[in-house]
């Protein structure tokens, strides 16, 4: 077994089995570096270029810690655009395939609000959404945060570029302070650093340079 094999991680059996069904044998470099601290429950800042497998790096972390029998929103993932939300939801659903009854719900703007209220009433374990629409659900009380133990900022650099900082601050203010926060980004400008200082707690920083 190579030291980049997923089997080195002690993931729950269904996840490990599903990964081999999906043809994922070895971790990508960013997965090798970020998954151990993510699985320990640490806050993590991970920087690596697009296409390096960042979704599974946080996806496996939140899925491994999820209590399937507790039908409450336990993880909130924010992405800058609807397309990215859909891609992340597809990848998380692929990773959950062998664990039955895990419900992943997407919440994006540009989609009717009413049906989302109905879906939220039915419940979900994991929410993947865009900042604007998620904040609207929080403000209106249709999304409960009390059981959220894992908060993910995906493509954090793009979210800040798109002017979401204020919205992100409002969302963070409504989350439990005792939580795991994971920040994934392709770049690490100063704006991210100052936000990370406010939102993450003693984060582990991992970085895979484009030249590697
Ligand atoms: P990023 O978010 O860094 O841009 P993604 O998470 O979208 O990258 O992953 C890019 C592609 O690589 C996806 O199609 C995903 O299914 C695939 N992938 C991720 N991790 C692995 C792995 N360990 N082995 C094989 N394929 C992987
Ligand atoms: Mg990504």
TrEMBL record:
GO terms for molecular function: ATP binding; hydrolase activity; nucleic acid binding; RNA helicase activity. A motif (Q motif) lies at residues 4-32. Signal peptide: none annotated. Keywords: ATP-binding, Helicase, Hydrolase, Nucleotide-binding. One of its GO terms (cellular component) is cytosol. It comes from the Bacteria. Residues 35-206 form the Helicase ATP-binding domain. Residues 4-32 form the DEAD-box RNA helicase Q domain. Belongs to the DEAD box helicase family. This is ATP-dependent RNA helicase DbpA. It comes from Spongiibacter pelagi. The gene is dbpA. The chain holds residues 1 to 212 of 461 of the full protein.
């Amino acid at each position: 077994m190579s030291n980049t094999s997923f089997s080195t991680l002690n993931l729950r059996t269904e996840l490990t089995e599903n990964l081999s069904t999906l043809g994922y044998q070895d971790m990508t470099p960013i997965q090798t570096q970020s998954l151990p601290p993510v699985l320990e429950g640490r806050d993590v800042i991970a920087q690596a270029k697009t296409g390096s497998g960042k979704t599974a790096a946080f996806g496996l972390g939140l899925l491994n810690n999820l209590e399937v029998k507790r039908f409450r929103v336990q993880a909130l993932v924010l992405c800058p655009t609807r397309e990215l939300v859909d891609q992340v939801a597809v990848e998380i659903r692929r990773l959950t395939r062998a664990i039955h009854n895990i419900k992943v719900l997407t919440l994006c703007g540009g989609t009717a609000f009413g049906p989302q209220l109905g879906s939220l009433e039915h419940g979900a374990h994991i929410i993947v959404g865009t900042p604007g629409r998620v904040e609207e659900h929080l403000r209106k009380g249709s999304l409960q945060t009390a059981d959220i133990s894992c908060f993910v900022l995906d493509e954090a650099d793009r979210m800040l570029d798109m002017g979401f900082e204020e919205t992100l601050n409002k969302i963070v203010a409504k989350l439990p302070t005792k939580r795991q926060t994971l920040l994934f980004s392709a770049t690490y400008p100063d704006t991210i650093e100052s936000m990370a200082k406010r939102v993450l707690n003693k984060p582990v920083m991992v970085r895979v340079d484009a030249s590697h």
